Amino acid sequence: MNILPVNRTTIKKAAGLLRAGGLVAFPTETVYGLGGDATNDLAVASIFSAKGRPQFNPLIVHVHDIEMAKKFVAWNDLAEKLSEKFSPGPLTFILPRLSGSEISLLASAGGDTVGIRIPAHEVARELLKEAGIPIAAPSANRSGRVSPTAARHVYEELGDVLPIILDGGECEVGIESTVVDLSGEEIILLRPGIITREQIERSLGICISTLNDVSGELKSPGLLASHYAPSLPVRINIDMPNPGEGLLAFGDNVPVGAKATLNLSPNGDLKEAAARLFSGLRELDKAEEYSAIAVMPIPDTGIGIAINDRLRRAEKR
Ligand code: TXA
Ligand code: MG
User: Fold this and answer.
1) What's the predicted TM-score (pTM) here?
2) Which residues contact 61 (CB under 8 A, 6 or more apart)?
3) Which secondary-structure segment (H or E) carries 307?
4) Which residues surround ligand 2, an ion (CB under 5 A)?
């Protein structure tokens, strides 16, 4: 079994494997990551091949602290300001690569920016400290599938190709980090997450754009509509499911006659719903009795914006 409990020995083993160019799955506060040495082209390439990614989307590079980030990217005032408030945490900054940056160009998908994140999860931090290298890590799922929020999900996705899955329990946040592009004139929220647009705007004291506001080229190729798909069709904003559909409910207003097969949060707590979203989709997807997954309406406020973003992608697959 390659799911390992976390202790000094297993952290050391995982760090050694990473330094040698191998891949390790590890927990973060958002979702589990599939990590490889971000400065090693071959390691980064093997991340893409393990995931079966059809194209080279840029990967998030995880670092232990700001000092480490500054070795690879042009840190700026905006990043500094946001870090004071949100680092370490579930926020990814897109920043210009430093010339001569050791980060593999493949992790930047050939571009001139790097996605940098300082994770808060203790296991991720220990691993980064022990390995002493930046770790490129997309979510540890096969391409096009929902992100794993528990070690057993990673095992289901990639258990056959991964020598080490560090088990840090269930992820607290449950959806991927907020991604904000700080590399250009215009600051753009590329992916909503638990840290909201409003929080970022408040902390920077300026308005920022979202992808919807920005026309033209797709800045973040990893944000393809089909990124988060279970195998079953997903229907969202459903007040009453069709017979045969599995229901992903929210709140206590479950329609009469519908069997709430899984409730993201009976109390209507959006944070709890976010933490359960991917495991809920995964569970209904596995139960072979359903024709589709019907999801009740989720309020489009706060972290509900990120939940609805992921659900719309799942629906569009
Ligand atoms: O919570 C998370 O962010 C998790 C954990 C493991 O840290 N990671 C994750 O990585 O979700 P991934 O590869 O599944 O998603 C990375 C997102 C993609 O949408 C990608 O396009 C965007 O970040 N991204 C990364 N680097 C970028 C860059 N240089 N420019 C634009 N977008 C970038
Ligand atoms: Mg992903």
Assistant:
1) 0.87
2) 38, 72, 103, 107, 114, 115, 116, 117, 134, 135, 136
3) helix 304-315
4) 139
Pick the atom of ligand 1 nearest to 108's CA: 29
Q: How far is the CA of 213 from the centre of ligand 2 (A)?
A: 23
Backbone torsions φ then ψ of 244, nearest 5 degrees: 95, -10
Phi and psi angles of residue 94, each rounded to the nearest 5 degrees, phi first: -95, 120
146-167 pLDDT per residue, tens: 999 999 999 999 998 999 999 9
Q: How many residues would you count in the chain?
A: 317
Q: DSSP assignment, residue 108?
A: G
- Lining ligand 1 with CB less than 6 A are 28, 30-31, 33, 57-60, 92, 94, 108, 111, 113-115, 117, 137-139, 176-177, 179, 190-191, 219-223
Name which of 133, 136, 112, 114 is nearest 34 in CA terms.
136
Distance CA 56, CA 222 (A): 9
CA of 209 to the centre of ligand 1 (A): 18
Summarised one tens digit per residue, pLDDT across range 229-244 is 788 999 999 999 999 9
Consecutive H or E run containing 236: none
How many CB atoms within 10 Å of residue 114?
31
pLDDT in tens, 72-114: 999 999 999 999 999 999 999 999 999 999 999 889 887 899 9
